[in-house]
Amino acid sequence: MSSSPPQELRRIQALSTLLIDKIAAGEVIEAPFSVIKELVENSLDAGAQNMQVETEGGGMERISIEDDGHGIHPDDLRLCLQRHATSKIRELDDLEKLYSFGFRGEALAAIGAVSRLTIRSRQASSPVAHCMESRGGRIVTTNVVAAPVGTAIAVNELFYATPARRKFVKSERSENMRITGELRKLALAHPSVSWRYIRDAKPRLHWTRATSLQERIGQIFQPQLLDHLLAVDFEYQGMRLHGFISDEDYYRANREGQYSFVNGRSVEIQNFGWLVKKAYGELLAPGSHPWSFLFLEVDPARLDVNVHPRKLEVRLLDHSQLYSLVQGALDPVLRPRMPLSMPWSRSRTFTDRQQSMDVLSHFKSQHPRMPGLE
Ligand code: ADP
Ligand code: MG
Q1: Does ligand 1 come within 6 angstroms of the Cβ of 150?
Q2: What is the pTM of this model?
């Protein structure tokens, strides 16, 4: 049994902002890959078209991201490090119409609190870039430098100030794998953005601007996958599911080929993998998993993204409809020659709402007892 702390330690005291930021940092950033995700999402929110990511030592020594987005106003540079300081929402109602990745104003404060951070940014209206360096959340220098329009952020010695967290980071190799995995998801969600990744001073990935998701999938994965992709596009009850799935001849022994996005955000949707697998039914042997790149679009008002600080999970108000949406989207594509020949072809996509409704009514007649179809 531990002895009770001395009397003076049992008195209540408010924690300092810097300490609060350090504690909160663990919720927002788990490891180098989550820092990259937050920084890249900021660049995307700033309209970047070209993204360069560099890491050293699995991201623990250094992470740097350079974008050609609209930059940060020099007067706002200091505010970046302040918790709950954001340019993306002004009031609670803005959450209902949110289309940006960020809104909590927490990432840079959290990253800054546990690293040595340098932010350099230039807006098009300014002839020069402004630069700020901080350590453990305290600004140490600011200066003016020559640089192109856009923002460059370097995170050095992540978690140097929080050794406990450092212990939970995996090996350099695993961190590198998690970083590549994160970059894949981000690049799939943004085919029109060009991506470069440099690891330990060696160029690792270069995905040039693609004109379609299919082209991006071909850049990232094996080219044979393209021959096995089936296009999906289906609307149901105000939700739209689109993207690609693999045919029954192309599968994996694990779920690592499954990517899901909600309103452009790579997130886990509860039961989604199971629903996708279920749509294949007897087409896939047990233990085989399809490839899928599926994008769900829903009205932001029907979606709660504010469930988790890292926004890894979203809650759908219409979750019970998801079963019908996934079945309705995948079934006609996977089984184009079902009994009662289908009035559409395998390669056709359903962008038109009426077509989608035709598919749905046909589907209903085939599956009269499916929940959510009443
Ligand atoms: P959030 O993204 O939730 O607003 P962050 O802490 O990630 O919070 O970023 C704080 C603010 O810094 C953003 O609202 C944005 O105005 C600015 N910012 C961060 N990164 C960039 C960037 N790469 N380009 C332009 N502005 C940026
Ligand atoms: Mg952000």
Answers
A1: no
A2: 0.82
Q: How far is the CA of 215 from the centre of ligand 2 (A)?
A: 28
Asked if 236 and 356 count as a contact pair (C-beta separation under 8 A), the reply is yes
Please, are residues 201 and 55 in contact by the beta-carbon 8 Å criterion?
A: no
Please say whether the beta carbons of 102 and 111 come within 8 A. Answer: no
Domain locations along the chain: 17-207, 221-366
| Measured distance CA(25)–CA(111) in Å, rounded | 7
CA of 80 to the centre of ligand 1 (A): 7
E-assigned strand segments in the chain: 50-56, 62-67, 116-122, 129-135, 138-145, 150-156, 194-199, 202-207, 229-236, 239-246, 251-252, 258-262, 265-266, 289-290, 292-297, 303-304, 315-316
Closest CA to 272 of 288, 252, 297, 294: 294
Ligand nearest to the CA of 65: 1
Tell me the fold of 221-366: Ribosomal Protein S5; domain 2 (3.30.230)
CA angle 349–350–354, rounded 5-degree value: 155
Kindly report the CATH class assigned to 17-207. Answer: alpha beta
* Cβ–ligand 1 contact at 88 (below 6 Å): yes
- Category of 149 on φ-ψ map: left (φ > 0), alpha (ψ -120 to 50) or beta: beta
Which atom of ligand 1 is the closest one to the Cα of 41?
2
- Walk along the chain (374 residues) in steps of 10 and give the mean pLDDT of each run: 64 81 75 94 95 96 97 91 76 70 80 94 97 93 96 93 70 94 96 97 97 96 94 94 96 93 86 92 93 92 69 72 93 79 43 43 44 35
Q: State CA 255 to chain mean position distance.
A: 17
pLDDT of residue 171: 87
* Residue 223 region by backbone torsions, left for phi larger than 0, else alpha for psi between -120 and 50, else beta: alpha
Short-list 179, 144, 161, 188, CA closest to 32: 179
Cross-strand bridge partners of residue 118: 133, 154
CA dihedral (261, 264, 265, 270) positive or negative? negative
The per-residue b/e assignment along 29-48, b for 16 or more CB within 10 angstroms, e otherwise, is bbbbbbbbbbbbbbbbbbeb
Q: Is 67 in the pocket of ligand 1 (CB under 6 A)?
A: yes
